[in-house]
Protein 1
Amino acid sequence: MVTENSVLSENKEVPIIREIMVATTMSSLFVALFALVASSFRTRAALQAEILALRHQLAVFQKNAPRRLHLHRCDRLLWVVLSRFWSSWRRCLQMVQPNTVLRWHRRAFAWHWTRKSRRLPGRPEVAAHIRGLIRRMSQANPLWGAPRVHGELLKLGIAVAQSTVAKYLPRPRKPPSQTWRTFLTNHLMQTAAIDFFTVPTATFRVLFVFVVLSHERRRVVHFGVTEHPTEEWTMQQMREAFPWDQAPRYLLRDRDAIYGKDFAAMTRDMGMEEVLTAPRSPWQNPFAERLVGSIRRECLDHVMVWNQRSLRRTLQSYFSYYNCASYYPPRYVVENSKPFCCGVGIVVCRLLRRTRSTNLAVASVSSAR
């Protein structure tokens, strides 16, 4: 029969056991397991009283505990095991959130498989004195390669593979490679570009202009104007552009259908190698495209073209100015302007002056009305 004195006597034994455990610095997991074994020899009333006391102490600790608890790995392992085999573990968990325990389990799962799938150690590395010997032999004999050094090491009784010797040989320092900008600059004298562009006339006809541009100074070598361009006409323009042995080594062009097989054979016979741009990629022929833009902005957008003769005369004056500006700075061209360099500029200024005077006259008449 359970009496009050027996309950009190058993409750007095609990602090003594705990002090012994603390004195021996046992882990919290071992304490929990020992308490589980000891509870099997105690009465139900004693267990209920201990549960009440522990819950009261737990409530007090929760009020005064720090915001973040310092838990050991064994503490986490206990709750991970309980979460796997005890369905009501969430209801009794008070010190951390249930999601924290699930996060511990995922971390332990990842650690377990990372440890199982870790890379096994391979061959042992070569000793330091052998690596130093390989480097010294290479420095003393610069013309020796990996096979010769490997053979010398075998004569000394050092058994290493030839691939290992090649791995530890010092790499020769090569001079830095030139940049793409330097490479292209060095080949500007050997490169030329060709392109077509259209010009509408005052009579609603379309003229085609063929230009040949040298990359050395971005100088216009040749141009031609026609209303019906053909492959034969284009081939003749190339012959006129490079009549003798003046053909460049590389010819940059697009994939226009007007450049047929005969055109490619003719350029090959002239000693030129064609460099084709990608389909629908005009930016790969930048100098020619920029020349066409300059012609439109600086010349053709300010004049009205009547026929082939008018366009040819206008472009000839503009290209004279363009080639002159490409050889000298703009200030020199302006200060030492010649008639053939500023013919187009004079025409444009006159047209602008006439347009301005006409606008002023119209404005004055409208204000008088």
Protein 2
Amino acid sequence: MPDPIRALIVGLGNPGDEYAGHRHNAGFRVVDALAQAHGLTFARDKGAHARLARGRIGDSLVLLAKPQTFMNLSGRAVGRLARRYEIPPECLLVVYDDLDLPLGRLRLRAEGGSGGHKGMRSIIDHLGRQDFPRLRVGIDRPPARVDPADYVLQPFTAGERALFAGVVARAVAAVECWLEAGIEAAMERYNQPPGREGEERMAPEGRGDPARTGMAEGEPVGERATAGGEEGL
């Protein structure tokens, strides 16, 4: 009998090469980097409406997912995967962009609402609960007179790209810490500004994985865009 999946890590974004560099795809960027760091490869799963990568990170057998339903219907994929693999809420981590955090900052929480993020709102609606961990990746507020819905669907500027690459690396380390040491340890370490609290890439030893530590249709849309629909995925 195959080993059970110990954690489902979901990165949010809009599918398609034309959206790959957008601020709204920060979640995709993080799980892509996490997969690359651990030699995992994504493949399309039409039944789940997602691209999936399965393998081990440390001692944990994990499933990485990138929903392919566009942002505002992300819950369709997450709900199916959570049911298929019987993932308890404390073993689900959702990674996504956040306008209210400065570029360069991360924020982990054990539970909470959507904060107006349409992808998170969809996930909460499909799961019927909001008591699952999430990692918010700061993309900063838009300049004056720029609509947030347009801003999140723009690429990072040349000056921002180098900074964001560092943010992605730090987010990967935060996910690894969550897997190894649990949500409280990851929050204590990575909710600090970069460079604070003597961060190390390796998580503290002996704290256990998320399950053992009890942590706790179709167009691309921005934060104020209208929901659409996607068929045939």
